[in-house]
């Protein structure tokens, strides 16, 4: 197990040409981060999950996201950037969505639930480019706080966020843009 500083040093050593989805996914799977080394970045609040920047360079950024029990992200994508996730503390679900149709004129889109996977310290994950729309959930039944590490390449400061999803129809009202997880 590595400290987060060692984890970052290893990422920096990969180099731009080799910073591919598969290569970095293998690195994340092989290099678990010691939760104790994340203590300076852990901030939980009862009202919303928190995003805590650990490191940023031109090639990638690394955030610790802290989730109280029951906190969930909006449905979002990552603007075409790669995203790898590890969960050193607790457990999180990733719910993926398929895009059924999008109307840029009205800014409505229709989504359909796809697969759901569970991440924990033994099971990191990453966003597949062909299935980029997802939400992250610390489900109430998990009964514990969670902290996830999110690695983005390249860094991005905006993404597409879908709000007020209807579980009945999957029809979503207009999208807005803001950073998400
Ligand atoms: Fe995400």
CATH superfamily label = Jelly Rolls
Biggest β-sheet description: 5 strands, antiparallel
**Number of helical segments?**
2
Low-confidence stretches: 166-178
Q: Give me the secondary-structure category.
A: mainly beta
Average pLDDT confidence is 88
How much of the sequence is in beta strands? Answer: 35-45%
Which sequence of SSEs, written as H and E, runs from N to C? HHEEEEEEEEEEEE
DSSP strand count = 12
Binned, the helix content reads: 10-25%
**Between the first and last Cα atoms, what is the distance in angstroms?**
25 Å
Rg from C-alpha positions? 16 Å
Using the alpha-carbon principal axes, give the shape: globular
Bound molecules: fe (ii) ion
CATH architecture: Sandwich
User: Would you give the CATH topology?
Assistant: Jelly Rolls
CATH uppermost class: Mainly Beta
Biggest sheet strand line-up: 1-2-9-4-7
Number of domains: 1
Explain what you see:
There is one protein chain. The protein has 181 residues and is mainly beta. It has one domain: Jelly Rolls. The protein is built from two helices and twelve strands; from the N terminus they run ααββββββββββββ. The chain is globular and about 45 Å long. The chain binds fe (ii) ion. Fe (ii) ion (FE2) binds next to loops. The site of fe (ii) ion has 5 residues, from loops.
Q: Which key features would you list for this structure?
A:
Jelly Rolls; single chain; binds fe (ii) ion; 4-stranded antiparallel beta sheet; 5-stranded antiparallel beta sheet; mainly beta; 181 residues
């Amino acid at each position: 197990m590595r400290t987060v500083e060692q984890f970052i040093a290893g990422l920096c050593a990969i180099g731009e040409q080799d910073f591919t989805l598969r290569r970095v996914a293998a690195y994340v799977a092989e290099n678990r981060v010691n939760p104790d080394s994340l203590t300076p970045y852990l901030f939980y609040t009862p009202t919303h999950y928190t995003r805590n920047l650990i490191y940023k360079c031109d090639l990638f950024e690394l955030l610790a996201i802290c989730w109280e029990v029951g906190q969930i992200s909006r449905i979002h994508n990552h603007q075409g950037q790669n995203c790898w996730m590890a969960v050193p503390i607790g457990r999180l679900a990733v719910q993926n969505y398929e895009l059924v149709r999008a109307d840029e004129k009205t800014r409505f889109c229709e989504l359909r639930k796809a697969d759901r996977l569970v991440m924990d310290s033994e099971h990191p994950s990453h966003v597949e480019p062909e299935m980029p729309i997802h939400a992250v959930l610390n489900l109430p039944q998990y009964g514990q706080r969670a902290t996830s590490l999110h690695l983005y390449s390249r860094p991005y400061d905006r993404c597409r966020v879908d709000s007020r999803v209807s579980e009945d129809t999957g029809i979503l009202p207009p999208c807005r843009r803001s950073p998400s997880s």
